[in-house]
Amino acid sequence: MKQGDLLYLGKAKSVYRTDKPDELLVVFRDDITAFDGQKKNVLAGKGGYNAKVTAYFYPLLEAAGIPTHFLAAVTPTAHLVRRLSMIPLEIIVRNRAAGSLVRNYGFAEGEPLSPPLIVMDLKDDSRHDPMINDEIILARGIAAAEELAEIKRLALAINAVLRENLAAKDLDLIDMKFEFGRDAAGMIRLGDEISMDSLRLWDHGAVGASLDKDVYRKELGDVMETYAMVAQRICGA
Ligand SMILES: Nc1ncnc2c1ncn2[C@@H]1O[C@H](COP(=O)(O)OP(=O)(O)O)[C@@H](O)[C@H]1O
Ligand SMILES: [Mg+2]
């Protein structure tokens, strides 16, 4: 496998072509950003922790019957993945209220949401990722009705797997963000990452005991110490 041209430089990952047209190399960088990229830092080792947690969860999800883009971890910070045509949506599954749900919709911090809520944002930095709904998605042709139903089904199934796995490690999964895409055959697969940047985790039983990127957003403590400890708790070593 050869690292080819840079295809996409994101806020926290770089995506390269490989010698196969339908496979890409995703490199997890040490950049961390928040608030639409207004807050930015480089934290040595951060990319490695997120790559490790992602490489732990994707095979677990595949084993549970969930199609993902993941093929292999080729270095501690680089994953070989199937190239997807990404659907520009951030699919957020919420088990308990936090963040914008508390700020904008009157929920109490930590309030259980049963069944879990799915919230969708349009992934578009220039528009600040506005919340979107089924009607707008269909009207804009972002996804077909059957694709949207499949995305929601998969998002809830992934939440169930992650929630149970993390609960066994005394981590409460509050909410999470997923990105999906279509593979060469048109199948919907989970792309992107599952990491401390995309999960909202609280230490079991303590409302707001953040063990994720909120430590960076809200300056709650040493971000790298938190990422290292959580990666250790999730996948050991
Ligand atoms: N399997 C894949 N195929 C193609 N693009 C992908 C795949 N998985 C993730 N991506 C895209 O690669 C980029 C990853 O870099 P990231 O730093 O997260 O970018 P962003 O700043 O857009 O969030 C994202 O735009 C994501 O949608
Ligand atoms: Mg991203």
Automatic annotation (TrEMBL):
UniProt pathway: Purine metabolism; IMP biosynthesis via de novo pathway; 5-amino-1-(5-phospho-D-ribosyl)imidazole-4-carboxamide from 5-amino-1-(5-phospho-D-ribosyl)imidazole-4-carboxylate: step 1/2
Domain of life, source organism: Archaea
NCBIfam families: purC (TIGR00081)
Location of the SAICAR synthetase/ADE2 N-terminal domain: 7-233
GO molecular function, one term: phosphoribosylaminoimidazolesuccinocarboxamide synthase activity
InterPro entries reported for this sequence: SAICAR_synt/ADE2_N, SAICAR_synt_PurC, SAICAR_synth, SAICAR_synthetase, SAICAR_synthetase_CS
Enzyme Commission number: 6.3.2.6
Keyword Nucleotide-binding listed: yes
CDD domains (alphabetical): SAICAR_synt_PurC
Family affiliation: Belongs to the SAICAR synthetase family.
Organism from which the protein derives: Methanocorpusculum vombati
Protein name: Phosphoribosylaminoimidazole-succinocarboxamide synthase
Keywords assigned by UniProt, alphabetized: ATP-binding, Ligase, Nucleotide-binding, Purine biosynthesis
Catalyzed chemical reaction(s): 5-amino-1-(5-phospho-D-ribosyl)imidazole-4-carboxylate + L-aspartate + ATP = (2S)-2-[5-amino-1-(5-phospho-beta-D-ribosyl)imidazole-4-carboxamido]succinate + ADP + phosphate + 2 H(+)
